Amino acid sequence: MDCRHASRSRTKPLVARLAGALLSLCLAPCVAGAVEFPVTGTISVNGNPGALPSGGHFGDSTYDAATGDLSAGKFTFPQATTTFHSDALNVDVTVNYQLSQTNSATGQVAMDGVAALSTVQMKLQIVSAFAAGVVPIPVGTCIFQPIDLELAGTGAAGGLDLSDDSFTIPQVGPNDCGGNGDEINSGIAGSNNSMQIQMAGDFTPPSANDTIFIDGFDASNR
Predict the structure, then answer these.
(1) SS3 track for the chain
(2) Do residue 9 and residue 106 come from a single domain?
(3) Same structural domain for residues 12 and 89?
């Protein structure tokens, strides 16, 4: 038997299998690897507007343009500083705070571009506070949660634009925040709050011509 012929015979099925595997990969919907989507935007607390902390992200997450699915991820923001007027103290209070997400959220972009995330649960931790910007206010453990956000808007090739026009920040107890709970509540807790978020990335809506599968069957053949 010609050994060279036998070797070629064994090679052909392997080449065919590899070609089939590569073909199936090419036909599968393309989904980018998990990334941290940059986040910018604004937040208004008790009617006082300001920018979201610079350097925020949502991830690690993936977006599937074939289905419009955004996989589970979390918003993360660095510490930031803001100033509000405390009626209880009758003085402006400057606080260093940390805004973070306590759950994971998924998202969906519909064919018409309408987009939404599942409920985002946030917590707001006051790290330090100063009356008139210079006098330290003891804050101890000072955490406002849960803050439930229902973010909805639009998705497009240029990014994801979402907002919640009204959400509630619950009060802390009067003995929280180093015994200054009531004073800090007056500037932070309440329902006159809103958030607008821009998530950078390609969130092109799924095409109406994409194949839709239902219970494992090609719906276009039904």
Answers:
(1) CCHHHHHHHHHHHHHHHHHHHHHHHHHCCCECCCEEEEEEEEEEECCEEEECCCCEEEEEECEECCCCEEEEEEEECCCEEEEEEECCCCEEEEEEEEEEECCCEEEEECCCCEEEECCEEEEEEEEEEEECCCEEECCCCCEEEEEEECCEEEEECCEEEEEEEEEEECCCCCCHHHHCHHHHHHHHCEEEEEEEEEECCCCCCCCCCCCCEECCEEHHHC
(2) no
(3) no
The CA distance from 22 to 52, in Å, is: 44
- What does pTM read for this prediction? 0.77
> Could you give the number of structural domains in the chain?
2
> What confidence tier does 13 reach under pLDDT thresholds 50, 70, 90?
low
Q: Considering only CA atoms, which of 95, 88, 98, 89 is closest in space to residue 48? A: 95
What is the mean predicted confidence (pLDDT) over 39-57? 93
**Average of per-residue pLDDT across 97-120:** 97
One domain for residues 100 and 147: yes
Averaged pLDDT, 147-174: 97
- Are 14 and 72 in the same domain? no
CA atoms within 13 A on the CB side of 46: 16
pLDDT at residue 4, as a whole number: 53
| Domain encompassing residue 167 | 31-208
> What torsion, rounded to 10 degrees, do the Cα atoms 186, 191, 196, 201 define?
100
